[in-house]
Amino acid sequence: MAAQVLLLEDDPAIARTVAYALEREGLQVTHSLLLQDARSLWSAGGFDLLVLDVGLPDGSGLDLCREVRAAGHTPVLMLSAHGEELDRVLGLELGADDYLAKPFSPRELAARARALLRRAAAPPSSTSPPAQPPAPSATFYADRSGQRILLHNQALPLTRREYRLLSCLLAGAGRIHTRDALLSAAWGDDSESTDRTVDTHIKTLRAKLREVDPATDYIVTHRGMGYSLRV
C-alpha cells in the first residue's frame, strides 16, 4: 500500500510540483490549501508523512506541526520561503524532522521524504543503544515497549529524536557522547542533519527535563567534545 502524504501548501503551482515529485516515488498525496482543512484531514488519520508550508492565509504550518508532534511520531517535513537559521531552528524546536527552504529541488524534496518514511518504518537496529538505562540511573526509567522515558516517575513529552537522544545518553550515563555519535543514534547514517541540529534538540530536551526537575541540569555540555548525562 502506498504511503499517504498530507501536503499543506497554499501556492497551487508549488503544490502541483511537490505532488508530482512525491507521486513519482509511489506516494499518495492529499493536498490542502488551508490550515483548518489540513487540520481536519489530519484528525481523520491515516497519514504517514506531513509536508507543511509555514506561511498560510489562515495561520502557520508550524501550528499543525506542534499538534502533530504532541499526538505522536508521524514525520513532518517543513517548507518555507524563509531560509534564515532562526526559522529553521524554530521549526526543529517545534518537532519537525526536516526543513526545506524555498526555492527547492523537487528531487531533493522527494529524497528527503523517502528518507523520513524509511527511518520511520525501520525497526530498531541491533546496534541501537539500549533504551533501558543502567541501574545507577534510577531517577530515569525507560519503557522500551512504549517508547517513552520517565523522570521521577513522570513521562517526558519527547519527540522521536529527543527519545533517541536521551536513550543514547542514558545508555552511557556519565560518559561524553560526541555530536557525531548522537547524530548517528537519533538520525541514522543517511541523515543530512548537522551538529547544529543536535544542539537544537539538546536545548529542547534540556527544557523538558527542567520542567520536571527545575533544580537539576541533567545534560552537561563539554565544549568541543559533546554531551553527557548527569545521574
UniProtKB/TrEMBL annotation:
CDD domains: REC_OmpR (cd17574), trans_reg_C (cd00383). Residues 132-231 form the OmpR/PhoB-type domain. Pfam families: Response_reg, Trans_reg_C. GO terms for cellular component: cytosol; protein-DNA complex. The modification 4-aspartylphosphate is found at residue 53. InterPro entries: CheY-like_superfamily (IPR011006), OmpR/PhoB-type_DNA-bd (IPR001867), Sig_transdc_resp-reg_C-effctor (IPR016032), Sig_transdc_resp-reg_receiver (IPR001789), WalR-like (IPR039420), WH-like_DNA-bd_sf (IPR036388). One of its GO terms (biological process) is regulation of DNA-templated transcription. Residues 120-139 are annotated as: Disordered. Residues 132-231 bind DNA. Residues 4-117 form the Response regulatory domain. One of its GO terms (molecular function) is phosphorelay response regulator activity. Keywords: DNA-binding, Phosphoprotein. Residues 126-136 have a biased composition (Pro residues). This is Two-component system response regulator CreB.
